[in-house]
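ZP: hey, is the zinc ion complex queued? I don't see it on the tracker
AM: it wasn't, my bad. submitting now with these inputs:
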Amino acid sequence: MSVMSGLMAPTAPVLFKAACPDCRSRFELSPSALRLAIGASRRTTFYSFTCPACGSAVRKPAGERIVELLTGGGVRTLRLHTTPRTTA
Ligand SMILES: [Zn+2]
């Protein structure tokens, strides 16, 4: 379906800046450390990662821009609901 978007991989590794709400440390995460979940609505669309400093699981809402950034950077995407767009 969306295989084409993953073919143009940049040579430089992409790092995403993130912050932990628990210990308030800031860090940069590689795409493999992040996970993106796309739900049926914006409220159920979020990205999550494990804080490398304190180890807590962080979950934050992801807007359209963040979704574009993460998917473009090669973050693993999980679709929680199938959209009715798919035509058979
Ligand atoms: Zn932390």
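AM: back. Strands lie at 16-19, 26-29, 34-38, 46-50, 57-61, 76-79.
ZP: great, adding it to the tracker
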